[in-house]
Amino acid sequence: MKEIIAIGGDHAGFTYKERLTDLLKEKGFDLRDFGPFSEDSVDYPDYVHPLCKEVGAKDIRRGIIICGSGNGVAITANKHSHIRAAICWNVELAALARQHNDANILAIPARFVDFELVVQMVEKFLNTDFEGGRHQRRVDKISTCG
Fold first, then answer.
1. Residues 54, 56, 61, 67: what is their CA dihedral angle, to the nearest 10 degrees?
2. 18, 44 contact by CB (below 8 A)
3. Which of 109, 115, 118, 137 has the fewest CB atoms lying closer than 10 Å?
4. Which residues have a catalytic role annotated?
5. Which residue positions in the chain have pLDDT lower than 70?
């Protein structure tokens, strides 16, 4: 079975979302596109909350969210206790987000990275495993509040 990747964001990330969707389909992934579906101005929480509800449920283990700065989508995503969204702007951060933090969503700042770098970050994010070990204890503490 092909891995299903959730993808979404806002109007500032729309073009990258569309280009990534095509690229990932070519690489054999199935995509669940949560929108938006045009460059018209939208409110990113309307797309990110439904996406996050699906990541970790059923067959969707990971997601990609894209907005202008990456901040809005990541802040929204991280309101969900089962989500670990990481804003990345280089390949090393994408690798570390997976290796050390078991990030399940990659947040991309579309206005600050070119598309070639986005492709490299996405490939690294999707092909890097969580190291576990000492990092597992830390990840286990993330959703604990109080």
1. 50
2. no
3. 137
4. 67, 100
5. 1, 144-146
* Whole-Å CA distances, 30 to 2, 11, 96, 98, 140: 6, 22, 24, 20, 29
Predicted pLDDT of residue 1: 61
Helix/strand/coil for 114: coil
3-state secondary structure of 87: strand
What are 122's two structure tokens? 């996405």
Say which CATH topology domain 4-142 has: Ribose 5-phosphate Isomerase B; Chain: A, (3.40.1400)
What is the pLDDT, as a whole number, of residue 23?
Answer: 97
- Residue 96: enclosing H or E segment and its boundaries? helix 91-101
C-alpha span between 82 and 46 (Å, rounded): 18
Cβ(25)–Cβ(7) below 8 Å? no
Q: 85 pairs with which residues across the strands?
A: 105
